[in-house]
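Re: your question from the hallway

Yes, I did run it. Sequences:
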Amino acid sequence: MKRREFINLSFMAGGGLVLGFNYSCVSTKRDKFISKGEKYLFSPFIEISDEGTITIYAPIPELGQGVRTALPMILAEELDADWEQIVVKQAISGDQYGNMAAAGSTSVSRFYEPLRKAGATVKMMLKIAASRHWDVSINELKTKDSYVINTLNGKKLSYFELAEAASEVPIPETVPLKKVSEFRIIGKAKKSIDLLDIVTGKAVYGLDATIDGMKYVAIERCPVRGGKLLAFDAQRSLTVEGVLKVIPIEPYRPIAYAEILGGIAVIANSTSAALKGKKLLSVDWDFGETQKENSLIYREIFEELKNKPWEDELRKTPNYTTETKADDEVIDFEYEIPFWAHYCMEPMNFTAHFSETECLLKGPNQRPQLIQDLVSQIYKIPLEKVVVESTLAGGGFGRRLAVDYALEALIVSKESGLPVKVIWTREDDVMHDYFRTISFHKMKVGIKKGLLNSWFHHIMTKPIGDGPIYEVQGAADLPFIIPNIAIGYSKFPTNIQIGSWRSVAHTYNSFVVNNTITEVAAFLNEDPLEFYLKLMDTKDIVTIKLPLRGDRGEVVCDMRRLRAVLVKAAELANWNQYNKTSNSAMGLACAFYKTSYAAHVVEVEKNNGRIKLKRITAVLDCGRVINPLGVKAQMEGSISDAITVSLKSNITIENGQPQEINFDTHPVTRLQDMPELQLNIMDSNEEPSGAGEPPFPSVAPAIANAIFRLNGNKTRKLPISI
Amino acid sequence: MIKLNVNNKEYYVDVKSDERLLWVLRDHLDLKGAKYGCGIAQCGVCKVHINGKALPSCIIPVGTVIGSKIITIEGLASPDGKLHPVQKAWMEENVPQCGYCQPGQIMAAAAFLKDNPNPTNEEIEGVMSGNVCRCGTYDRIKKAIKILISGD
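Structure:
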C-alpha cells in the first residue's frame, strides 16, 4: 500500500504527509465530470462550464475551520476568477488531490502552492486559447474577474466562452505566479461559501445525508472499553413498531484509529424506532479489566511513576544532575490535566452501503482517504469502487481523525445487507470518544542568584502511538534560556481510548510550562511579561534537537516572532499601564505550534465573590493570511474551547466508564461566558501556517495566570477551581 | 395518523404520538434543518417555533403539538424567498463556522427578538445562552443581534 497516509497510521495527529501529489493539471475531459459535454475539467480542482460556472473542488472536509472558503480563494486568486461566481463542491476521495486529511492545522500550508499553481496553469491555458482566437501575443492579454482582455482593443472573452478551446491547449510546464502586491482575493475578508445554505437550513451534514433505501441504526456498545458481550435479549426491542432486525456486531480493530467496539445494532425504519429499540435491549457485558480504572487509581499510578526514572529522555544539558545542588532554591510542581472529550456539535454518524463489488460511504469526517483505503484493503475492493463523500461536519476538533464510526456503519450495512445510517446518541458519542489523554507532570524549577537556573520536567501521558511523538510537543521544545534542563517522558498506563484533540499535546504541555514560568516570575517578584522577555533567547532562531523520528527530531522556534506576539498582546491589553486592584487582574501566556505563534492576555474581575473573565486579548502570527475572517473565527473558537476546559469541564472515569456524557453534566462555554474579545492577526510575509490549533495553547495558562495574580490561587489541576 | 401544521402546510404523518417532534420533522417530513445534539433539551440545535416560541424539538412528543403552528428554519424566510431579518443579520456578520448549531441559534434569536425587540445585554445573554455553539461563534452572534436591535 503505497498511498498517502496509510503507511503512517500510528501517528496521526500532526502534519499530513503529501505523498505522490500530482500538482499538474489534467485537461482530459473525464466522463464522470461531464454533463452533456459542456463542462471542462482542467485539473482535479477546477471545472469550467460553458454556461457560466467555475467549480472549485475543495479537497479537505469542512468542519468549521473554513477550508471550503480559504482553499478555493487561493485557487481563484491565481485564476483571476470572479469570486462571486465561484461554486465550491466537495471532492470525492481520490488520489488526485494529494493528502485530503483535515489534520494538524496544515490544510492551507499544504495546499497553498499546489492550488496557486493549478489556478495559474488554467489561467495560462485560457490565455493561450484567447491568443489563438484573436491571433495576438499572450503578452497583450490581461485577465480579470473571469475574463481574458485584449489590451490592444479592449475586447473581452469570458472564461466560459474560452473553456472548450482552453481544454485542448497542452498543459504549460511552468507558469508565473502572482506577486503578493497583485493579490485581490488572498488576504481579503471573505464570508463562508456555505453561508446561505447554513442560515436557511439547507446545508447537508452527515446526519442529513441519505442513500436510497437506507435504514436507521442505533448501536448499544459496551460502556467499558474492551468489555465483552456475554448475552443479549432483543425480544422487547423487536416489539417496537418500525424495528426491522437486531444483530450483534463483532469487535474489530484493523488499526488504532478505527477500533470497532462491537455491540448490538438495532435496525429500523426511523431514527425514533432505532433509538427506542436500543433502549429496550437487555445486554449482559463482561466489563473486563478496564472497569478497575478510576480517578483515585490514576493518582496512585502517578505517585508511583513520579518517583521512578523516566522511560524516554528527551533533553538533558551536559551538567544537569537530578539533584541540582547548585540551586539556591528549588520549587516543586505537580500537575494533573484530565481527560477531555471533543463534544463535536454533531455527534458521530455515518451512512453506508456495502456490496461485494463497490461501497458508498457518506458522512462527516477528517480523513476521507483513510476510510477509502481501509475499506478497499479489508474487503479487497478496488479503490475507485470505494466512494467516500465528505458531508459538512458539525465540528471535528480531532475526533474525526479516527474513522471507527465510518467503518462501523459499513460493517452494519454488510451484516444486515441494507444501506444504513448509523446514529450515535450524544451519550454514545462521549462514552466512546477518543479522549485527549489524561496527563501528569512532575516539575522542579531551580533558582540561583535570582535567576531561573534549572528546569526538570517529567511528562506522563498515554501516547497516541507507541511512544513519545506528539506527547512531548510544547514541553520538550522549550525555547527559553535556562542553563540546566532535563526533560523526560513515561507512558501512563490506562486502557481508556485516547486520540487527537485541538493542538494535541500543546493542550497540557503549554499549560504546565506557562503556568510554571508565570508562578516562578511571581516567586521572584518579577512582572511575568518582563520575565518571559528575559527568558527569550537573544538569538533570532532557536533550534532544539530531540530524539524523535522524522522532522519531529528538530524543532525550530523563531524567537523574534514569539517575542513579537507577546509584546503586541501586552501592548494591546495595556499591560504596562494596567492597575491591578483587589478585584481585578491580568495574566498572560505565549506559545508556538509548528510555525505559528500566539499570545494571550486575560483580564479577570471579581464581582460579589464570583470571578469572571472580563476581556481576552489574542494575538496570532500564522504567516500570510488567506482569509482574515476565517483566522479570527479560529482565534475566537480557541478561546471558547479553552474556557470550557480551564473553567468548566473534563471527563472523569469511574468503574472504567466516562462519567460526563451529556451537556447536563459537562457544561461547555455558552454565550454568557464569552468575555469581551480583542483579536489581532500579525501582518506577515512568511509562508502561511496553521490557524486552527495554534491560537489554543496559550489561552488556558493566561486564564490561570490572571486568576493567580488576582487571588494567589495556584492551579495544579484542570479545570481551575474558582 | 397525526395532523401537523408545519411551515404553514398541513401534513399527515403515520407516527405514534410519543415520538419526538425532531425525528418526525427529519425522518418523515424531510425537514432536516433542525439538528440533533443532545436529546435532553440542553444544547438548542433542535429548536423550532411552536406557536411563536423557540422550543427544543428533541424532547417534544409530537402528540402535544397537534394543532400548533410549527415553524422550522426552512419556513423562516417568507414564501417569496425573502430572508428573515435574523438570517440576514447572521449573513452580515458571517456568524456560522461549522454551522450545525446555527438553525437553532437563528430560531432562538428570531422568537426572542419578536417578543422583545429591544433587549438588554443581560437578556440577550440569558436567552441566547440556551444554545450551545462548539465553534465559539458567540461574539458574532452578539454582534448580529446588535444589528437587529439598532435596526441598521
